[in-house]
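dumping the sequnces here before i forget
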Amino acid sequence: MNSYQNLSMSEQKAEYGAVRARFEAFKSRGLKLNIARGVPSKEQLDLSQRVLTDLTAPEDYFADGVDTRSYGLSDGLPCAKAFFAELASAPAENVIVGGNSSLNMMYDAVMRTMLFGIGGCEPLVKQGRLKWICVVPGYDRHFAICEQMGIEMVTVPMLADGPDMDAVEELVRDPQVKGIWCTPKYSNPDGTTYSDAVVRRMAGLKPAARDFRVYWDNAYCIHDVYGEGDRLAPIYPLAVEQGNPDLVLQFMSTSKISFPGAGVAALAASDRNIQIIKNRLKYQTIGYDKLNQYRHVKFYKDVDGLKNYMRLHRNILGPKFKIVLYEFEHKLGGYNIARWSTPKGGYFINLDVLPGTAKRVWELCRDAGVTLTQAGATYPYGVDPEDKNLRIAPSYPPVDELLTATKLLCLCVKIAAVEKLLEDDKEEE
Amino acid sequence: MNSYQNLSMSEQKAEYGAVRARFEAFKSRGLKLNIARGVPSKEQLDLSQRVLTDLTAPEDYFADGVDTRSYGLSDGLPCAKAFFAELASAPAENVIVGGNSSLNMMYDAVMRTMLFGIGGCEPLVKQGRLKWICVVPGYDRHFAICEQMGIEMVTVPMLADGPDMDAVEELVRDPQVKGIWCTPKYSNPDGTTYSDAVVRRMAGLKPAARDFRVYWDNAYCIHDVYGEGDRLAPIYPLAVEQGNPDLVLQFMSTSKISFPGAGVAALAASDRNIQIIKNRLKYQTIGYDKLNQYRHVKFYKDVDGLKNYMRLHRNILGPKFKIVLYEFEHKLGGYNIARWSTPKGGYFINLDVLPGTAKRVWELCRDAGVTLTQAGATYPYGVDPEDKNLRIAPSYPPVDELLTATKLLCLCVKIAAVEKLLEDDKEEE
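..and the predicted 3d for all of it:
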């Protein structure tokens, strides 16, 4: 094996012909495969079926002294608050349990800060130019919220142990910077887990803006795929310890534990933040679906129960991650045209292709019937400045389809790389 | 029986002594009763138990070609859209099915207009002073949204056939007036159903503000309690007919059909409004709980199924409404100290007591262990200018408790009335 760059132009042309022929063979199969979004497979969803069936008689729906089917408890069922509190390493009274979407809870948190302010500050809509720190590559739906709200996104690179904290500490000196999106464990898309040092520095930030908040989207907090998995230091105690309790808003959900569309989400924050949020939330809803909250707590019981249960997910997801990584290693290794992450959990594998070819790889895959996450989606405004990042989501397709999709993807990476190198050669002439 | 006003002062004092003695007897019983909120009773909730238990195997959760447990379809499951479309007299593509709370959908609709505008207009936050029409008496949670958003509330009286439309038509000539709250059928709290003429005029409004919207909270659309019930003209066809499709946002929910805390809510609106809302909603959530949407459609099937089912509710609610009305008639009739509504459906009976005594009645009830909706709650900012309106919610308590609470309430109305009259006599001296 030789790096593509070391091939002569005629060797590159020969390679192009070879991979292109294999690509055409794939294309003629009329594939329709999807490795675009981090969606659990049907097999995974079936694992939680008893969440939906264990409660039957009307009396089963009584919990914490209330009929969970009725109104009330806008901050969540007490047993559900306790459940998420354990996950968040925060007291139960510092938790609000919501509906089926942590994205919705994050959105609403930003929306309330826009309209009503936080930390005793003016509403963000009255503060003129607003900025937000986005670690890149990152999660497109985080970025989209900023885009919709008209908040300018400033990027910080993801390093091996988390965001570049020197850059973050520098940026928060600007009073117009109001927040940062973090997916601290098995980060979307690169799978990085923040080191203890990074979590400590994040929890110790001294932003110029009193209404700056760390949006800690702990979406994959117990979503290990291999072995012991990574360990993430709990941020809330570290924030409290550094006199910074109000800095962090933590978000969690069971979207990738029970059901993506019918799970339970929660947020955890300081006394003061929770008090402010509760006082505002009561205008928006009389309460979230406590019955669904109770179904979940009843089935998973506690974090230990959850951890045991997540082994079943791992048994399904682990082999899928391995298939993709094996193919990458064997089809792309050594050519110097791609690098990829090897995460121990989460839902994604990050694939960096030859700069300037990510969009082309995406197009080629599309043309042959394989849907990838849109190239650029992992960057604010959908613009990857180097056009090199692709996010691979191995969870949804069955193993045989995943294998086919990955083989095709590897071919497309090669085609796009040779095309680019040949083009560069031409320009040099 | 004689009107209290015609009694001599000594007769008033004698009456005061008599009712006060009976009040003290109630008080000594240490009651703890609640007729404050429109909450269905346990008996009613049990009627819908099969919503929660009919779907069991994983395959049961496939509907409209999708696994309802998974992500997607942010505007709702197609069969759920069709279900609510029938209720709203609008096409299914003009419906968005949401989570468990229509209040939340109304709040979000206002919030989006505040932040992003509607009808091609600037966001409301950028438009300076904002006003909203509130029909009084009305629903406290509607008013609270305006209060939180800093929107000034201007009131319009409820007449026998709906809001005073002359006043509404006059007010919408002001470009700062951006909306009106309506509960068009069995209005909260007075039980009024808007007449065909009122619905037609509402649908034909020509507001100065292009971003004015009618918030049509059809919370009690099929919630008859007696006989045939009232008929409400469908507003959407009338708006279309008058060239006004974008004027109305309709809201519905099953909160008082299945479960207050775990039902399904929906909104219906014009093509243009729906397109705007969908384009914004996708930033807030990947989708609502489609599984719960499907549970509901599967059980109720369609509007005919729903109507049949609502008879079961009527069997429970009808007698409760009768108890309250019978007591009012027999204990308060003829004294000229109270007037009340006799709604054919909904969740409330409106009680107008002697002006200047509503708060006192509320206090007396509280002191004897009966919780009423806070006096004033049916007016913006919690201020009833005449201090006369009370909202009675008969649905929640068992029949015997409801009877006791109503008897006590009638006594309190009398006590407060005589106190007031004696006070007035004193002032005249």
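The CA atoms of residues 53 and 181 of chain A lie 36 Å apart.
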